[in-house]
Amino acid sequence: MKASEYRRQYEAQLNAETPFAEGLRAAGADVDAEADIPSLLAVATDAKAPEDDRQAALEQVHAATFLGQAFDRHRADYIAALHKLVTDDAPALRRLALEWLSAAKDDVAQKVLADGLKDPAKALVSAASALEFLSLDEHSAVTPLARLVLERDKDLEARVAALRTLTADPNAADLFARFMRDKDEFKEVRQISAVGLQKLNENLFQKVAQQIAVDDHDFDDIRATALNGLARSPIAEQLLSNPAVRASAKAIGEKLASNAFSALLSRIKPGSDA
Amino acid sequence: MPAGISIDAAPPAASLDEAEAAIDRALAAPDAPAALTRLLAEDAPLYRGRGTAEAERLRGRVLAGFAKAGLPPAALPQVLAELETGLNPLVVAGAARALAGAEAPPAEALDLLAAAASRIRSTDAPTSPDLRPPLGAVTEIVLAMARHGAPAVSRLRVLRAEGGWSAAVTAALAQAIATAEAAAPKGCCGGRSSTLPVAPAAAPGAIDDLPIQDQSGAVMRFADLFAGRPAAIAFFYTRCMNPQKCSLTISRLAAVKARLRAAGLAERAVVAAFTYDPAYDTPRQLEAYGRDRGFPFDAHCRLLRTTGPLDPLQAHFELGVGFGPATVNQHRIDLAVTAADGRIVLSHAHRLWDEAEVFETLAGQIQA
């Protein structure tokens, strides 16, 4: 499609009843990077155009980033357009711009996201989304921000995102151990903490998980999480030889009737506790 | 959050504005070239505790400052290293701009600039808006090439022939070719830069008792592995995102080991690499990383980590590495060859090293 033709179509669509965005998405496969991308970027960054049209145009350009070398000549303009959209009034466009810039490890996006996490009044996306986007770069300074969210936010989604982020921080093992043990925490928080701890420090995980597995006063699903992790540990057979751990596994397995537990239960020989 | 749980939040780094103001102060100082050169150290306080993107933004600004302040010989290896292996457009553009401050940049700079333009073309981005004028990174490189005058013309034409450049880069190429053609031939030192860092004056035996662990989980003292044999010791980490640095380092170390083996010297020298990130790079990580790169593990060929902090190793080998909140935020290329008594006899920093040179140095030490 030639740029001039595209512009005519766009203007016609603005005056027509059929949504422009619908037509553009349907024509996605025909987008010609050489001719169309400048026009699509112009639409995406045009604050006066309908939001749906702008988003459709932006998605088309994003799809074209996979063209490889054919897109290279437009990349600087694409990044500049995304930078402009970071503070756009349309939340969906802001979110897309921040996500795609974050995937490219863009420092401007990372600064905006970090500023929003430090001061929620400046936030352009939710804390959970900000952490998710910052985590796309393993080398970003996201871990102190994740700790800040854990200190400050009660929101489950934000706390879960913060803990997911910290699974890449070798210094977070003690934190995960504390959350894993904490019976006042959300169930999801304790389960993610178990996964994070096992990734970062297998020995500490085994210690905490064994305590939880045989604790009759803890929740059954948390005990099941601990037991499942133990069953995947390098010393699973040795742990399953512990009568208390075996008894807990059998009792919880019967109570929860969990499929995920069947592999673990099958490793306990029938009658071995008789 | 329940009472009694501390999250142990690390103290935050100074704000980006404060850091940029510190660079501007260095640029305005009477000894600006030296002040900026100090800010190039990967472990400078300017970068401490920051993520890589932020650290690299600052590094790009420091490098660009040399265009105004003048580029001293001490900073040239860092500038050339960024052109040789850098991937961040801001940093590479800063390095290209820095060459404008050199009295006589080495001829190899032209080839490094051309290679850098091709390397970052798929990540080209506007340079920082506070660099005036703000240009695309590849455009910065093209303009830097034009400043070399007539010798740049053929390389610029090759770049133009590659095609597929943005309108801005295409225009810059045309302008650069015209500028370079019109320029009088420029006196320019030839060949590869001879500015190599001096080997660290580390005291042999100073870290003999340092506890270390290899990819199999075996724990030992530094001297248990290295005392009495010459060694090639490189540095890396498994989360490095630049294939021109850590990944290539391990592949090249494997090639050094192959040369030793072919010469019948495999048992008489140690080939090893230490991770910068010992908390994350567990034995399992090290083993997988080496295996994926054909690293020929044996008793004298290992990937290693310190079981405690990296500091003693960093000080001993004067490593150029800085850290963010969770991992490395920037590092240079570092390699040392040590003699059987632990003296450092060859040290490579910043630039890519040559496996033949490392092998020959080891062979020389074995036969000494």
TrEMBL record, chain A:
It comes from the Bacteria. InterPro entries: ARM-like (IPR011989), ARM-type_fold (IPR016024). SUPFAM superfamilies: ARM repeat. Gene3D superfamilies: Leucine-rich Repeat Variant. This is HEAT repeat domain-containing protein.
